[in-house]
Each structure stands twice: as structure tokens, then as C-alpha cells.
Amino acid sequence: MKIRGIACSMPSRRVSNEEVIELVRESSSARLSARQLDQVAARMRSLFRVSGSKYRHWREEGELARDFALRAAEEALEKAELSPGDIDLLLYVGVGRGWVEPGMSHYFTHALGLANATCFDLLDACLSWLRALHVAHQFLRSGVYRNIMVLNAEFHQAYDGWSISDPDELEYRFAQSTIGECATATILSKGEGGEEPYFEFRTDASLHTLCKIPLPNIAQYSEAERCPTLDPLVFFAYSADLFRAARRMIVAHYRGSHELRRRGYDIVFAHSASRSLADWIANEIGADGRSVNVFEEFGNTVSASIPAAMCWAIERGRLKRGMRMLHVMGSAGFSVGFAHMVY
């Protein structure tokens, strides 16, 4: 399998940490005292320093998520030197979406004029893009499809509840303040020999309560949620516990995998949930300055984080054809994933 074309489309509005803090202060002013608001601001500044967050990109008023996804898809087609009719399958992998049913893939298949394509959604939180590459590899290797587009549109302001009623809520509300917005499109085709892509995944499902975007009927499906405020469609994440799980599972899995350690790599792309965490993991697996970390500029762009970082690296000459890539991902659930492939 080869990546035939990859593109990223991101809003131009660059939002600083202080702008997010002010948004939280304004949204919470009716619930918190002036002293509590100062406590929240101080705590957020401290957490931003620890995580390495500086900026994230959000839409301007009137900008629509779908337009960024369509722009990324059209650019990826151009880079792949393919027409819409050449795509056989579209996999939509974004957590960002406008409805639950049918799959968002149906809208984008229609909007892009992919007349010969079938489609479906693949959803596994931030890990969705990497899961889709694994699925696409199996389809391409078996000859079921020739050209597959993997598309996401991670635009999450609608999932953010900025108003808090107690400073302690930052334990599970802070993560939303690092989320950035982005769409990416990746076009995959059958490879032409050489080293085959390789994937490994592992899950500790007991940690599913650490991070969610609840629906109104969550109580019908789960009897023991940890978060005390399960506001419908408001994202929450216990970041400290998630990062402890990532450190434990990612490093242990990599060190325990003979195949991953056997395969050499030229560049590493890790999920951007925290600059300090990504740097720590890169050091533990011996990346030796070969990792790409764009968290300071783009924040956590959910399932778009690795393809967005790849586009950034391509533009700056850090990622070139023929380079061996190691992809490392930790994701709500809690799952970890690795991929090794040649660009």
C-alpha cells in the first residue's frame, strides 16, 4: 500500500491560550466568583505550560466544516493525479460529524462526485485514521478496491461546554481547551513492491470512562460512568489518567514487539495530545530527534493529528518519498496503535 496523495485544510484563525482562558472566564462568570475565576485562569495557565500548548486553529464566523473537508479531498485527488471517478471507496473517520445516521461518508461521497465509490464510516476516537489505514491495506492487498480515500473533518466547537461551575471541573474539562480544528484527506493505492505496511493495536477497555462525548441517552447504555456531569454532546477527558495509560501502554507495547523494533524508521509521527507526552514517548522508544511534534501550533486535532503533521512535514521537506515512517497513537477507549510504512 502506498500513500498516493495527502492534504490538509485548516482554518486560518490562530487562537492563543489566553483567548481560550478569556472564553472560559466569560462563559463561567455567572456561576463562579471573581476569586474562583482567577483560580481557574491560573490553573489553566499551569496546565498549558505542562502540556506545551500555545495555539490551536478555529473557524471564523461563517466558515463551515464541510468546506474544509471538501477542499482537503480535492487537493488530495490533485496530488494523487486521480479524478473523482477513480475512487472506489471513501472511509470517513472524523469524530466531528453533523449526524449519527447515515454515515457522514455518504454526504462527502455525493458532494465530491465519487460516482463509482461505495462508502462507510469508521469511528474509534483519535485512532480512527490509523484504523482506517489498516482496513484499507487489507482491501487493497486483496484487490477489492484500487483507490481508497480516508477523510476526516475534526471541527469540535459544537462539542465544547466552556461554562464550568466549579474550578475542580478542570480535571475533566481542560482537555477541550487544547482541541484544534482541521480536515485531512489521504488517498491510498496498492503498493508496487517493497516493504509491506505493518500494524499493531492493543486495548484496555476498562478505561473507557476516561474520555467521551456523551449522547442524551448514555444512561441506557452505561451504568457506571466516572464523570459527574454527563452533559449531552459536551466533551470530557481525564487527561492525567489518559496520559498515564499512554505512557504505560505505548512504551510497553513497543518494547514488547519484535517486529516493530526490527523495522527501522526515518521519521516518527505521534498523536498530538500533549507536546511533553509526545516528546517523552519519542525519547523512550529511541526516536533520537526523528519525531515530528506540531502540538504547540495546532493543538489536538483528534483523528487528523498524524495526517496533518505529515502534511506539515512534507511542506517543510522533513518527509520525503521513500522514507520509513513510524506512526504512534494513543486514543480514548483506551487503545494504542502503531503503523510502520514507507511514504
Q: How would you sum up this structure, described in words?
A:
The chain is α/β, with parallel strands linked by helices and 343 residues long. It has a domain of 145 residues: 3-Layer(aba) Sandwich (Peroxisomal Thiolase, Chain A, domain 1). Helices cover 35% and strands 21% of the residues. The protein is built from eleven helices and 14 strands. The strands form four sheets. Strands 1-7-6-4-5 form a five-stranded mixed sheet, with helices on both faces. Helix 9 links the parallel strand 11 and strand 12. Helix 1 runs antiparallel to helix 2 and helix 7 runs parallel beside helix 9. The protein is globular. The protein starts with a strand and ends with a strand. The mean pLDDT is 95.
The number of helical segments is 11
> Quick one: how many beta strands?
14
**What is the helical fraction, as a range of percent?**
25-40%
Shape: globular
Q: Provide the gyration radius in Å.
A: 20 Å
Indicate the proportion of strand residues.
15-25%
- The SS-based structural class is alpha/beta
- CATH class wording of the domain at 198-342: Alpha Beta
Overall average pLDDT: 95
The CATH architecture term of the domain at 198-342 is: 3-Layer(aba) Sandwich
CATH overall fold name of the domain at 198-342? Peroxisomal Thiolase, Chain A, domain 1
